[in-house]
Amino acid sequence: MRLGSLRTGGARRVIAETPDGWLDVGEAAGLDGAVATSLRSLLAAGPAVMEQVRNAVEHASRSDVIEPDLDRLGPPIGDPSKILCIGLNYSEHAAEIGADLPKAPEIFVRFTSTLAGPRDAVPLPRASDRLDLESELAIVIGRGGRYIPRAEAMDHVAGYMVLNDFSVRDFQQRGSQWTPGKNFDGTAPCGPFLVTPDEVGNVASLGIGSDIDGATMQSSSTEHMIFDVPTLIADASTFATLEPGDIIATGTPPGVGFKRKPPRFVAAGEVVHCWVEHVGEIRNRVVEESEWLAERDPR
Questions:
Q1: What number of CA atoms fall less than 13 Å from residue 62's CA on the CB side?
Q2: Total structural domains within the chain
Q3: Which pLDDT belongs to residue 175?
Q4: How big is the CA angle at 129 (ends 257 and 253), to the nearest 5 degrees?
Q5: Are residues 95 and 211 in the same domain?
Q6: Do both 184 and 102 map to the same domain?
Q7: Residue 32 falls within a domain, yes or no?
Q8: Residue 147 CA, distance from chain mean position
């Protein structure tokens, strides 16, 4: 399945992509309340409810669906309890920035205020002109747990999505902690859907890349990850209880802008495209922060 979050006025609805259009999951599966409006709540409701949803999607008719509109999609999971991000998880990316290969996953956190939809505008902060892209495969946790064995880790995966871990490089590099450069509002667009593992196939061998206005920046494969998906889940669950809807962004391949000669940062007006094979693609136009704020609050 491909499940997403549709903005409907001031509310949200969980939808599923079908060959004929988008299906309102709550209406089709007879669900209401939070499970119809929050994909995180739907995952937390457990496998029986998810099976209801799958059955509704499989039996949907053309008359049940609505016309797709990617501009109305929000982040599939808009309210995770945790967003864990992995740095230096591709060997060639570690090499391009001159870093030693990590002996354990390099983990930092993002705030929920950074999340954005797959077609949302992304602000160029007024405090910096060093906005850089990072195309990533993101894991979404379906079944929570603590001290999850690596051999059982894939049983805890609800699905995957694309995430652009936009980084404000001067803020990232001004101290020993990366938090400031990784947490500017609206700089983690993701989606377009949460794609269940049965549709993705071998997650250890997926093409991944990015471009700016059609000019290729990154082109690689998840086979070059240093720490694979099961290892990341097992490692993260040793220090934190993973919960349904939690996001783990698995790191970016080589080709980032700040290590190019000359450096290539993203400018206002440019469109950044990130993609992961079998998972999807997101396209986000970068705008001046003042424009972004005005669109969010017309006052």
A1: 1
A2: 2
A3: 83
A4: 20
A5: yes
A6: yes
A7: yes
A8: 24
Give the pair of three-digit tokens for residue 51: 């099976």
Listing DSSP states for 184-204 in one string gives -TT-EEEEEEEE-HHHH--TT
Strand partners, 144: none
Same domain, 147 and 181: yes
Look up the pTM and report it. Answer: 0.96
Q: Is 165 helix (H, G, I), strand (E, B) or coil?
A: coil
% of the chain beyond a pLDDT of 70: 99
CATH code, 260 = 3.90.850.10
Q: How far apart are CA 123 and CA 131, in angstroms?
A: 9
In terms of domains, do 229 and 115 share one? Answer: yes
- Please report, as a single letter, which amino acid is at residue 10: G
End-to-end CA distance of the chain: 39
pLDDT value of position 95? 84
Identity (one letter) of the amino acid at 8? T
Residue 38 belongs to what domain range? 2-68
Tens of pLDDT, residue by residue over 83-114, are: 999 999 998 888 888 888 899 999 999 999 99
CA torsion through residues 70, 76, 220, 97, sign: positive
User: Do 129 and 183 belong to one domain?
Assistant: yes
Structure tokens at 116: 């954005």
d(CA 38, CA 35): 6
